[in-house]
Write a structure and sequence with these properties.
It is a single chain. The chain is mainly beta and about 375 residues long. The chain is about 5% helix and about 45% strand. Strand 21 and strand 22 form a beta hairpin. About 45% of the residues are buried.
Length: about 375
């Protein structure tokens, strides 16, 4: 049978697809988490994998590479090592330069995958897989979820690096790993919490875990095996949390898998972490993520934009502004810049005047 040009082209495409070929896509399809380490910005994309950008000039983000990781929903960074999940498995990936990375450790391998099966075939020659440059210590002028030198995530973070420990939400439990040797992490313990846990916010002494039915407080007195010491229970809703001092700020959102009851910002007194108490409930439309710096709190309103509150008096949050766009889901507040994860893109806003945010760039 003779094959014309069109027929041959179709056969080639079919052959490439059958062998797992896929062109690496720099566009963000489904952003589910964000992470910032010094001037390197990471986006966990549930469809494409991990997008890596240089934001040394926040007004002109530069795409460095995309790691086509299957079903990634979060990450953390220590030195030049990315700790990231692939579904229910956990990998340590070392970055070498703008195009190369290497899997240095498969920490959990629940499906007994070989190394290649964690990655979507993308037709790119890795030479051994690859790096974007080493990450130095992060500025202390930040509002994120990290207390070590690794970097920071948003309020939807599922990983936390604190000193030489890595904490990771794995289904119903918190897995604790030592990363004193970043390329050779290993598990120390698992702490069962509940079926519904979703997000993590660390402080020097505690881990605050957001779940669909409550906020759980874990004591890190023994950092190798954190223990639950307090719970703030609420109706079934989605529940990210941020903490400053003795106050926790929790957003509750109804709808879909989140339940159908409450949409609100909860202000919780955690001076006694074994007995958290509600100070104030501020009803809202569709709250998602949030970020705090000093006495200012940005709260996502989903497709309705975002709001700013003065929380110098936590029991009486004072509205300072509301913006109908862009659509938002989560934030990282770093210096004078606000990294905004939306439903369709990532935007960087200048918030040198927090009451007058100005967009300086975007990542589609």
């Amino acid at each position: 049978m003779k094959c014309g040009k069109r027929c041959c082209l179709m056969l080639i495409i079919t052959a490439l697809l059958s062998t797992g070929f896929r062109t690496a896509d720099t566009e963000i399809d489904d952003a589910v988490n964000i992470y910032l380490s010094d001037s390197i910005f990471y986006v966990s994309d549930a469809i494409q994998g991990i997008h890596v950008y240089s934001v040394s000039d926040p007004s002109a983000p530069r795409h460095k590479l995309t790691i086509p990781l299957v079903d990634n929903s979060g990450l953390a960074v220590k030195d030049s090592i990315i700790y990231a999940n692939s579904g229910s498995s956990l990998l340590a990936i070392k970055l070498h330069d703008d195009s190369l990375y290497d899997v240095v450790s498969i920490i959990h391998n629940k499906y007994n995958y070989n190394k290649n099966q964690f990655f979507m075939g993308d037709g790119v020659s890795y030479g051994g897989w690859g790096c974007t440059g080493c990450m130095g210590p992060t500025s202390t002028d930040v509002s994120g979820t990290e207390t070590g030198t690794g970097g920071m995530g948003g309020s939807y973070a599922i990983f936390s690096v604190i000193d030489t420990f890595l904490y990771y939400i794995d289904g119903q439990s918190i897995i604790t790993l030592t990363i004193s040797d970043p390329e050779n992490p290993f598990e120390l313990s698992q702490t069962y919490i509940n079926w519904d846990i979703e997000t993590m916010f660390p402080t020097e002494k505690y881990l605050f875990i957001g779940g669909q039915t409550g906020m759980y407080i874990l004591d890190r007195s023994n950092p190798q095996k954190p223990a639950t010491i307090g719970t703030f229970s609420h109706v079934t809703t989605c529940d990210p949390v941020v903490v400053q001092g003795t106050i926790a700020y929790v957003t509750l959102r109804s709808g879909g898998r989140c339940g159908r009851t409450t949409n609100a910002l909860m202000v919780v007194d955690i001076a006694d972490p074994t007995n958290p108490k509600l100070l104030k409930q501020v009803n809202m439309a569709t709250p998602y993520g949030l970020t705090i710096k000093d006495s200012l709190l940005y709260v996502s309103n989903g497709s309705s934009g975002f709001s700013l509150y003065n929380v110098s008096q936590p029991s009486s949050p004072e509205p300072l502004g509301q913006w109908g766009s862009p659509s938002t889901k989560d934030f990282i507040w770093y210096g004078d810049n606000l990294f905004v994860m939306g439903f369709e893109d990532i935007r960087i806003l200048s918030v040198s005047n927090p009451q007058a945010p100005v967009q300086i760039s975007s990542i589609d």
